[in-house]
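Morning run. Coffee first, then this:
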Amino acid sequence: MIDIRRLQLFVAVAEELHFGRAAARVGMAQPPFSQQIRRLEQELGVDLLVRTSRHVSLTNAGSELLVSARDLIARRDQIVGRVQRTAIGEAGTLRLGFAASSAIGILPRIIRRFREALPDVLLELDDRDGTDVAAAIRTRALDVAVVRAPFEADQIMVELLHSEAFVAVLPAAHRLATRASVTPADLAGIPLILFPRPASPGLHDTIIGMCIGAGFSPVIVQEANAWLSIMGLVDSGFGVTIAPKSAASICPSTIACVPVVGTSDRAQLAMAYLRDLPVPLVIRFREIARSCIDQQD
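And here it is:
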């Protein structure tokens, strides 16, 4: 295997065509510099330079090696630079998981800011059920995930990012649509559309708990795996839903979003990652997510 350092020395003498100047350029005394060039020629079994008392020139083999050596050194520098930047969270790949229930509100802004701040990072997005997230993090199929809390799993660190109030999402013609606010009890007996529990356990359980706390068991008539699907079902008059306040941003004009009051329950968004594994890009993602939320608040 050719020593990369010897290739660097060869490039120096090939460009200077003078051993003294080349040795000075790399900070070496001339005798050991010349010895290293000789060893390179011996390793390759060819003469790379024509040496006379007054002149140094490249052989055909030396000219060929110069092109390849420059390319190899450049690629080596790129690799070293990328590895070093990855170590400090400026390059590499971040595998980000999220459930469909998390894909409204602050998450798009976090993703946009992350890509702007770290253009050399490949951001791989993975939309999956909430029940699959923990296993994916433990097996390192995901580096980090944005999930609806509460979210508890062995070996997983969960940090609350953001919380927001709930709204009742109703057809514009619904009797409650013109109200300034509703309580959970106002929704008793009204058909409800929710995410399936496996898709978003935290959000599902919070909404069910809110209803039970208000003294009734919700009547779930349909489940759907995306906010737009749920909105479409609401718009058709199939039922209503309870959603984070940020869902109002994707509601069509034919749907009303009425604040839910009289409850301490909040829609919580959290970041989950493997405990005791300080991945630099996860740390950078956390910093950017926090800054987005601080600016919003």
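The chain has a mean pLDDT of 90. Good start to the day.
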